[in-house]
């Protein structure tokens, strides 16, 4: 018995000492739930370290929660449980709808963050009828990655439109023996492929759900989905397209395909994985037709605040500051969201040395404001349903008309179900 | 005296009853009741809609697909699992040294966590550089194909359940009383007769239990799918519980959450009732 008491005491004393120590310094902890892994995590953690070292009274506690969508899952679970929400969460467009109505969200305006240096279109991506749901932090856009060696071997140009690709893909396939492209487009790609048409169009009403919950899809009536499917089917029918839904990057590294569409945030990872194997090029996403000049949306993620404190504001301002964004962009491939970063001589020197890092930003800056992240309910399900529907069209199990109405019905049903449940 | 003992017995089970009531019955009743209501995102009931939530769930094409997938998996997994584990346990049921070595090989899968095995299987059945394809010179895209992805998951399930079911069956074999077997030897039964007429009937209760455990495992499967395919390719490997997971946790769909959990609890209860009836019938037969 005496031994037990002794052990208990030994365990309790240090904790008492430590907690007392923490109180003395009067440090406020700001918890961030983030979604950065691999190279991104290294870069993010060193930003956190930089902040902690330069601030005596604030300490960032960064907790990895999985992919961006997993962060949302954890946030929703914590909000339902009524406790345990972090101060800041790194979220992507799939969180848009939930955050627009989340009672615990503190908008950027309410928090009073200084956003004057932000690139407008990057900031506008998080605009809702309630205010900005967060500040852009890890901004990215869709990029066309290609194996420059294979393209050279085949003697073809990088496609500017899908029509170009329909004629060059079989040449690549024939001359190099590998697929010209791997992947099945889904929400992210379709925001570009559908949204860029006619100089920029919305996929659903209420500005893709940013001005309140969408009531219906628009891509069926305005013909954009049909137009895309016709081109994509023609591309598939050349035999040079591989419908791969997972491990696309691995196929690209292994030279099983000559090109892929991926987020610009993968740039550093792709370059590291192909270093010494072959030359990688990046280009603007091919346009569906010559009228599809809308460009791409700024995707990636934002930092959303759930506590209205000075410390949270300070952390957010640090994360979007010119120097943090320069560090973040140079180590990952994300686009800097701070205008002063882009104009700084350091960044200009960096992109001169690494020209691939400037393509995403140029593409995004020349894009229409109508090409905007999609904020709809059941975003996760819609993502996989798009892939499923497109694959069915390509494999001849579904006609293009059926596919358009099936996808429109699915999203409309989700919208109606959301309206039914949430009034 | 007897009354006092009874009371004490109730006292002993009370903590367990409280825990079960708190963590199983109360949540179930709560979600069963809320399945007839609309809920807002904070989980508060707003209006009574009777069966509308059930109608919305049961008519959803992806829910129907998930039921089909679950039944398909059950159809292939349960026999495969039963035959394999029974064969393995039968093979080493005699207590010999060589059998102890083989037997310990069989239980190795138990030493690995489910998530680790799921990730290993994800690599084994990778669509781009599958290990299986390289070994057997096949050209299957496994996790990128609707049908083969489902079978890759079934393969993982067989591997996951193998060790436990094998141990249960083996201990059933080893528990058979010697005198029954010796009596059959004296009566001149050969190997085949002894196995099918004496030993198999003796382990039948355990065998039925492993079959029901296998059915239950597939009925409630979600984590291996989450790790291995995320329901893909093209939403073709979503089980009912995985569908529940994405609707409830990814989509914040409160209606689907309460209706599917109610349906699944009722279904599991039916399964349990069936199990009890079969075991009781058998005992009285």
Can you characterise this structure?
The complex is a heterodimer of chains A (423) and B (285). Chain A has 20 helices and twelve strands. Chain A is an alpha/beta fold and 423 residues long. The longest helix of chain A has 24 residues, at 2-25. The model of chain A is unreliable at 16-24 (pLDDT under 50). With 285 residues, chain B is mostly helical. Chain B has a single domain (51-284), classed as MetI-like fold (Orthogonal Bundle), CATH 1.10.3720.10. Chain B has a two-stranded antiparallel ribbon. In chain B, a hairpin with a 5-residue loop joins β1 (37-39) and β2 (45-48). Chain B is globular. The two termini of chain B are 37 Å apart. Chains A and B meet through α3, α19 and α20 of A and α11 of B.
Descriptive terms for the model:
heterodimer, A: 423 residues, alpha/beta, D-Maltodextrin-Binding Protein, domain 2, 2 domains, five-stranded mixed β-sheet, three-stranded antiparallel β-sheet, 12 strands, 51% helix, globular, B: 285 residues, mainly alpha, MetI-like fold, two-stranded antiparallel ribbon, 75% helix
Which secondary structure elements does this structure contain, and how are they paired or packed?
The complex is a heterodimer of chains A (423) and B (285).
Chain A: H1 2-25, E1 28-34, H2 39-54, E2 58-64, H3 68-81, E3 88-92, H4 96-101, H5 108-111, H6 120-124, E4 127-128, E5 131-132, E6 135-140, E7 142-147, H7 148-154, H8 162-176, E8 181-182, H9 187-195, H10 205-209, H11 224-237, E9 241-242, H12 248-253, E10 259-263, H13 267-274, E11 280-283, E12 299-305, H14 310-319, H15 322-332, H16 339-343, H17 345-353, H18 356-365, H19 379-394, H20 400-422
Parallel strand pairs in A: 1-2, 1-3, 8-9
Antiparallel strand pairs in A: 3-12, 4-5, 6-12, 7-10, 7-11
Helix pairs in contact in A: 2-15, 7-8, 8-11, 9-11, 11-20, 19-20
Chain B: H1 2-34, E1 37-39, E2 45-48, H2 52-58, H3 61-91, H4 97-106, H5 114-124, H6 131-136, H7 146-175, H8 178-186, H9 191-219, H10 223-228, H11 240-250, H12 254-284
Helix pairs in contact in B: 1-12, 2-12, 3-7, 3-9, 3-11, 5-7, 7-9, 9-12, 11-12
